[in-house]
Amino acid sequence: MELELYQLAIVLIGSTLAGSINTLAGNGSAITLTILTELIGLPGNLANGTNRVGIFTQSAAGSYAFYRNGKLDLQRSRWPILLTIAGAIAGVAVAVNVSNEAFRSVFRFLMVLMLLVILVKPKRWLRESDLERQPHPLVAIPLYLGLGFYGGFIQMGMGVFFLAVMVLYARYSLVEANAVKGFVVGAYTFLVIFVFQWQGLISWPVGLLMAVGQTTGGYFTAHYAARYPQANVWAHRLLVAVVLLAIARLFDLHLLLGG
């Protein structure tokens, strides 16, 4: 597939922005999937598979940057990581046989609920990690498995929901929650790529091109966030903006504003 020069520019700029957004908030796939379907013209299922290439490389690069700067504690986070990955494997096994379109109407109301959760008592999102926090296994196990299943099945909005659980329930700081999120998403996306490739649902030339932008955005955003004292504050603001834009898009509010 040959792309025009302007398409190449949009792909690289858009994927870099998406990688940055995914690293500190989530839902950057709203940008990359729009580029893949509307600009390049890939069918929905092929765009879904192709999109996972950049998600993997961006997550790996961001996780490495967070780890180098002491924001990713793999030992402390081993159970959220393992359980979420296990749930994701089950989710993707279902995803290849079931359409995701039926979930769009439910997802938009989940986003409205998420916006309320983010805006009510925002100081909860800005605290530092509580290293003494020990989540109860009877709650934590099904919660992380459910998150993983959702991510493997739908992916859309997974980052936002994962951050809510890690910050509000597991009591991680927003930056450290993003570090764990990146590692988890990268790990299960690596496995998911094999499933989509087996189904012939990845366009590698396009996927690798987007991966260049997403990896660049993911690495430098993680590197900066790990070192910047106000990173939690800006991550929270970006999260609010991302959810607001998702709601506007899901409810077609942009069409109402446009007349």
UniProtKB/TrEMBL annotation:
**Which Pfam family name is an example for this entry?**
TauE
UniProt subcellular location? Cell membrane
**What UniProt keywords are attached to this protein's entry?**
Cell membrane, Membrane, Transmembrane, Transmembrane helix, Transport
Q: Does the keyword Transmembrane apply?
A: yes
What GO cellular component is one of the record's annotations? plasma membrane
- Do the record's keywords include Cell membrane? yes
Per the record, membrane topology reads:
Multi-pass membrane protein
Q: Where is the chain membrane-spanning?
A: 79-98, 105-121, 141-170, 182-200, 206-226, 238-257
This protein's major location comes to membrane
What family, per the record? Belongs to the 4-toluene sulfonate uptake permease (TSUP) (TC 2.A.102) family.
- The protein, known as: Probable membrane transporter protein
Its ancestry begins with: Bacteria, Pseudomonadati, Bacteroidota, Saprospiria, Saprospirales
